[in-house]
Amino acid sequence: MLYAVVDIETTGGHASANGITEVAINIHDGNQIVESYTTLINPKQPVPIYITALTGIDNNMLKDAPTFDDVALQIYQLLNDKIFVAHNVNFDYSFLKHHLAAAGYDLQCKKLCTVRLSRKLIPGRPSYSLGKLCTALQIPIQNRHRAAGDADATSILFNLLQEYNKEGIIAEMLKKASKEQVLPPHLDKTSILRLPNQPGVYYFKDSKGKIVYVGKAKNLKKRVASHFTGNTPNRQRQEFLRTIHHVDFVVCGTELMALILEANEIKRIWPENNRAMKRYEHRYDLYVFEDQNGYLRLAIDKHKKNNNAIQSFNSLLEGYNFLTQLIDKYQLCARLCYLQKTATKCYAHENGQCFGACSGIETVTVYNKKLNAALADIQNQQPSFALVDEGRKEEEFSCLVVENGKFYGMGYFTDKNYLQDGLAPIKKDLSIYQSNSYILNLILNYAEQHPQKLYKL
């Protein structure tokens, strides 16, 4: 069995937009290095100043170096059919696989990460960076942050790790079913093994325990593992994988409950890697207020946190259409509802006659009575119900409650007669969550598809 101990230097942190500036490959037979290869590479793009400061490699050094296409065949032949070994193996592998593919070569190797291997065989170290690990283990590094120097140090580290490998951990990690090498370098495999095959919400955390991503799953173990398949070379994915040190989870009774918890947790925690859900907000609300003359007035306005809205809408047009229907039905003043602003008097849509509220002809008492009737109609149309579904274990049920058209909360119980006395007794046992139109639409769609799980309250 032959190993290729690899280190590369690059112009940046992800393969899709950066080049390789140096490659070093030590062919190792399990006991010693039997062949070495190293070369500078012209990346055909400028080397950033901070990379030069770190590695010492500058544009002048690379101008006469071969391009990657010039050496791709030789690199492929050295790596092909070997076990690819590197410190944080997925970084080096993603770069070489990406650039070899661009040159017409399909690299397919088993991988072995000396970061992950060191964590298993030499646990308890404060840092597993190559420099600090080599210092702690008294491994000399010549030309730190140059490919050949780091590859040589990694080769010595690999020899040492084999001495610690009394229980066959390396062989276990190399098994196809192990999936060990696809995991981020700092994430222990036991974090994946302990995940259940149940719906829930998972939390990726960095080295300090800060939550950097929240996700939902129909099957926690499968969904979390799916994050680490493939070798996508883009910057976002590579930085994301380097960040993950821990994964925690909360089991939910159903996928719907996981979706709701995920939406609430993203809004509560605001993780840096959750982009799509962070952008979501229902954008417009219907509000009621009393003006200086005592008239109650309706208005469509942008969503404001902590303001009690009567109804929420996904667009301004949707809000205006709803308000227009109220005006027609209850003969409200369009001008007092901010749908007419240019005329001094307002006109109904059916007959063109002014109802007189904006001119003070219709009294406050009469007009407010009509508007309150409209509000009562809106309130009466808002549903109150519970969805009773599967729990987290066999003897348990889940309960999800909507009250007056807004999501109230959810929880778990063991007695299906729990709901026989209505909503009031059960509210104290539910966890309360924020409601928005996204969550409410999820619930209403689910209730429509599963009417047998619906209990009207």
Automatic annotation (TrEMBL):
SUPFAM superfamilies: GIY-YIG endonuclease, Ribonuclease H-like. Residues 197-275 form the GIY-YIG domain. The keyword Nucleotide-binding does not apply. GO terms for molecular function: exonuclease activity. The keyword Transit peptide does not apply. CDD domains: DEDDh, GIY-YIG_UvrC_Cho. InterPro entries: DnaQ, GIY-YIG_endonuc, GIY-YIG_endonuc_sf, GIY-YIG_UvrC_Cho, Ribonucl_H, RNaseH-like_sf, RNaseH_sf. It comes from the Bacteria. Keywords: Exonuclease, Hydrolase, Nuclease. This is Exonuclease domain-containing protein. It comes from Pedobacter vanadiisoli.
